[in-house]
Amino acid sequence: MKVDRPGVPDSETQWRTAGDRIQTLLDSCAAAGTGAHERARQLVREVVALYGAGLERILRLGGPQLAERLATDDLVASLLLIHDLHPHNVDRRVSDALDRVRPYLGSHGGDVELIDVTADGVVRLAFRGSCKSCPSSAATLELAVEDAIRAAAPGIATIEVVGAEAAARPAVIPADTLLAPLRSNGHRHSTATSWHPVPEVAGLEPGDVAGFLVAGSTLLVCRLGDLPLAYRDYCPVCDDSLAGAQLRETMLGCPRCGTQFDVAHAGAGPNGSHLDPLPLLLRDGVPSVALPEPLGAGR
Predict the structure, then answer these.
(1) What is the pLDDT of residue 171?
(2) Are the CB atoms for 187 and 150 separated by under 8 Å?
(3) Residues in domain Rieske (predicted)?
(4) Poorest-confidence range of 19-28, 54-63, 89-98, 127-136?
(5) Complete edge-to-edge strand list for the sheet that includes strand 209-214
(6) CB 198 within 8 A of CB 212
(7) DSSP three-state, residue 111
(8) Domains, the chain, with CATH or none
(9) 207 near 223, Cβ under 8 Å?
(10) What is the distance between the alpha carbons of residues 49 and 54, in angstroms, rounded to a whole number?
(11) Exposed/middle/buried for 182, CB within 10 Å: 0-12, 13-18, 19+?
């Protein structure tokens, strides 16, 4: 099965890119002169402050239980963060964010431990297990862990990986502006990537393997138990497509050369061969895959 989803204009995409559209409009006002630009910026500040005051009153009237419920929605949580109204402190938000990506890290045979969050906004992490040596460990950090932490705590200044990897894999998150939680899928990455919703993945049954054409890139998604895992549609052994591959327990077999890849361990194959995994995570309840920009062509 291959599903072509060229645009998918939906409410999720609309609100996740709202900050970018607002910034574009502000930038266009600059052409009318400094005065017009400043008036436009002031208008945005006034509107944001008005909605902030409204949110604060809603929370005060609704009490702690309502605040907890609202914080579970990505859009509302983003607005609460903008106005410093989120009911959870930064340590709790970072910890919860890491819990959400642990199943994905487990598919790499590893885990992540939160060491601490310092007063000056530094998150220190330690990777456990084999994910720290997996060829996709960089993508795991930048596209899964970093994405989750940025969305949950946009005020974080730096993410550091302690241990042997600390010197090689620092990930710096610069402080952003007021609209940061609403820009570029909720934040800006240090690498040019974009998250694409693929809701059809939710319909896969355990053991299913399906192909998807997402934003010009062909993906292979297999469901291992409750966990959907995404890979580029490319066999590194025979240099061909994996279309028609079948999953037997944890092994995905290439239908052309017969090579078996262990999807429970990030697609590891024989003699150092490896499938190219892509982060596939739930974002506001919708399965979404991270792809680079510009999208890489098939090998």
Answers:
(1) 38
(2) yes
(3) 195-289
(4) 127-136
(5) 2-5, 209-214, 217-224, 227-232, 277-278
(6) yes
(7) strand
(8) 19-83 (no CATH), 90-163 (3.30.300.130), 194-292 (2.102.10.10)
(9) yes
(10) 9
(11) buried
The whole-angstrom distance between residue 258's C-alpha and the CA centroid of its chain comes to 32
Instruction: List, in order, residues 6 or more apart from 285 with CB less than 8 Å away.
Output: none
Strand pairing category for 209-214 and 2-5: parallel
- Tell me the average pLDDT across 219-231: 90
How far apart (Å, rounded) are the C-alpha atoms in residues 239 and 280?
23
What is the average pLDDT across 101-124?
81
> Any idea what the Cα angle at residue 130 is, between residues 223 and 288, rounded to 5°?
35
Query: Residue 154 to residues 151, 207, 273: CA-CA distances in angstroms?
Result: 6, 37, 37
Contact 137, 128 (CB under 8 A): no
Cβ neighbourhood burial of 89 (10 Å; 0-12, 13-18, 19+): exposed
Element containing residue 183 per DSSP (H, E): none
Q: What is the CA radius of gyration of the chain?
A: 21
